[in-house]
Design a protein that fits this description.
This is CAAX protease. It comes from Micromonospora arida. With about 230 residues, the chain is an all-alpha fold. The chain is about 65% helix and about 0% strand. The protein has one domain. Helix 4 crosses helix 5.
């Protein structure tokens, strides 16, 4: 079996190049590739809620700490904030987007809501040419993670993993090949690092584990020999 065995409607709607990763994963068995495609959509949807909460919680936790540190809601406008050129460009772009939407002048909350997940994650980095570790993390941003006992770079790496996962989901890319159970554990560690109560509440809405278990069960049935 191969791509030629895919139903015409799915070839027209989604294209063979898009379905090729699913065919490869499914051993070129068309019906299994289609089933995997639907499963990928379902598990992506299940991750959406927890990732939504993680992104907004990170944004608000860092914003609150920076407001306190620099004494103003538009803390990025303070001469003391050591934003990199990249960070300044992202703030400028967010402000311009607000203005194009008729928010003139945009409030600090408007700009904060427009800033990307990548911007907030970048504040935890220590990329070349930045002073974020010394001037943001040490005096301020570590306070946003009262339950994290590790290093800053470990936290940044975990958030960067979640950012990339989030981007794949939002662009409808395959995630079935990832260690999604490990991704889920990492996500809840990050939520707990900010607020264990938040992590506990979000678990009540989480369907990821159930969907992962269904795929494990399906694989187990396929692998089990007939007796």
């Amino acid at each position: 079996m191969s791509a030629d065995d895919l139903p015409d409607w799915i070839r027209r709607a989604f294209s063979v190049p898009r379905l090729n990763p699913y065919l490869t994963e499914s051993g070129q068995v068309a019906d299994k590739a289609v089933e995997l495609y639907w499963w990928n959509i379902e598990v992506s949807a299940a991750f959406y809620g927890p990732l939504h909460c993680l992104e907004i919680a990170l944004r608000n936790a860092l914003h609150d700490q920076l407001c306190r540190r620099f004494g103003r809601p538009d803390w990025w406008a303070s001469a003391s904030v050591p934003l990199t050129d990249h960070g300044i460009r992202l703030v400028t772009e967010a402000t311009l987007k607000c203005r194009r939407r008729g928010l003139t002048p945009p409030s600090a909350d408007d700009v904060v809501a427009e800033l990307s997940f990548g911007f907030w994650v970048s504040l935890l980095s220590n990329r070349r040419g930045s002073s974020y570790d010394r001037l943001l993390w040490v005096p301020t941003l570590h306070l946003a993670f009262p339950h994290h006992s590790g290093r800053r770079d470990e936290l940044h790496t975990a958030f960067e993993t979640m950012r990339l996962l989030r981007n794949r989901i939002m662009h409808y890319e395959p995630i079935h090949h990832r260690d999604l159970a490990a991704d889920r554990r990492k996500l809840y560690y990050l939520l707990s690092a900010m607020d264990p109560v938040l992590a506990k509440e979000i678990r009540g809405l989480d369907r990821v584990e159930t969907i992962l278990a269904r795929r494990r069960d399906a694989h187990s049935r396929v692998a089990r020999p007939d007796l």
